[in-house]
Amino acid sequence: PVPCLLIRDQVLEGFLRFCGQMGSFSDGCSSVALTYFNEIYDHMSKEFNAKNVCHMSGACASRFHQHEESQEIEIRPMGGVGIIKVESEQSMGDDIPCKLCEQLVDHLRDLLIANTTELEFKQVLEGLCKQTKAFSEECLNLVDQYYEEIYSTLVHNLDSNSACFMIGVCPKGLNKALDGPIMPIVPMRVAIIHEQSSAPRTPPKKLLGENE
């Protein structure tokens, strides 16, 4: 299993690289990600589970929508999510979870494009902001200013492999954009707080003869 600290670092790196694709909002996005990363990560850890993702993608509709004559209703998987050709499955080996993750991300992006207008997307973001407690007010202000850029980035620049690497499912190196340095310009207080929170904690040195 991958250590939790390594997963946290990968998620933070993924957020910062995603922020780097947001044009004039990239530095502001990085500042928000660094300032509130603990809250964001904790919320993802609680809510990012199979049930919620399945419901959001529409792939498990039969579990949530019951019909009296369900035997007469044919339910088909949406967008081929979860379907991998036999020949490619044999050649991928241990990369099957990565490919499934990429399929799901592509499917969610297609759903966003097909079923959600910019205004509806803003309403979704506002709903998410209201769940972030101390970050709620600032989050709502950011959504009000930048939801168009966020929507455009998700529609045009969302890379499925990068997203799956960010959550620790896919290996690094399949996208050259992941190899470059990350150098956002953030306020001094944000940089100091991040350095303090990410610095390795070493136990205090014991004095000679302390336990004697």
TrEMBL record:
PROSITE patterns assigned: SAP_B (PS50015)
Entry annotated with the keyword Glycoprotein: yes
InterPro entries, per database record: SapB_1 (IPR007856), SapB_2 (IPR008138), Saposin (IPR008373), Saposin-like (IPR011001), SaposinB_dom (IPR008139), Sphingo_Act-Surfact_Prot (IPR051428)
Saposin B-type domain span: 94-174
Keywords in alphabetical order: Disulfide bond, Glycoprotein
Any single Pfam family the record assigns to this protein: SapB_1
One of the protein's GO biological processes: sphingolipid metabolic process
GO cellular component entries: lysosome; membrane
PANTHER family to which the protein is assigned, alphabetical: SAPOSIN-RELATED (PTHR11480)
Stated name of the protein: Putative prosaposin
Taxonomic placement: Eukaryota, Metazoa, Ecdysozoa, Arthropoda, Hexapoda
